[in-house]
Amino acid sequence: MSNAKLLIRKFTDIQTLPHVVTHLSRLIADEDSTMKDFEDVIKMDPILVVRLLRLVNSPLYGLTRQVDSIGRAVAFLGMKNLHNLAITDALKNIFQEQDEAKIFSRKKLWLHCAAVSICAKMISERIFGKNGDDAYLAGILHDFGLIIESQVEPEKFLTACEACIDGNPLIQHEQEILTTNHCEIGYILAQDWDMPESIQKAIRDHHLDTSMGDPADLTAILQIAEYITGQLGYTSLLGIKTTLPAHIVTHMQKNMDEFKVLIDDLPEEMSRAQDLYGG
Fold this sequence. Notes:
Helix content is 68%, strand content 0%. The chain contains 16 helices and no strands.
């Protein structure tokens, strides 16, 4: 068994995603799923029902008629948006702050993941004209492996974090000290949770310096989002630096006007997302 799988097994003895989230993930992956299937799963979680109904009836959507049924709310919001809402809610609880060293903060990591997810969704929709739901989900999940490392092997994890002072990437120190890294852990989890293959690969590869590839691929979108949010101070660790593969840098330079508008709009989009996903 790889060390990544061993850490995941130990972590699931401590905490795991609620059953409703794993059920929704399987429904998303199943092409034969119906709206009724989603409605039946949501009924399992009263808190999610309240958030769902509050969301569709909020000023964000400006509906003239009150939505008071789960089925209508799911139909209006859409299955992937609902899935993302459920996962975001579940992860927020797992990211709750505990007694931790100054170098690492779960709250800071949550803000980083939230910023990356929102930025990735914007990049997918505005720059490439693609649906941004999977980009959002990849952003929320991309660093979840760090949570597992911090809970299961806290001393080794903090040692890896502190070693980053030498300027080398965290993933290198994770590999040396933990014999795995958060990308590998997150990739295996995404498989276990039945996430789309593109999300699995983006989580696995988001720190790879690939010399080729389409800038519109989900992995590249995630890398761009990490870079932009890192420049704005939404980093997971103090002083950590994010670099981009050369071909992505070239793409951004060629489309700098569009990216400047996106960066200017990012704070407003993050504010809107607080209404949608609870901030």
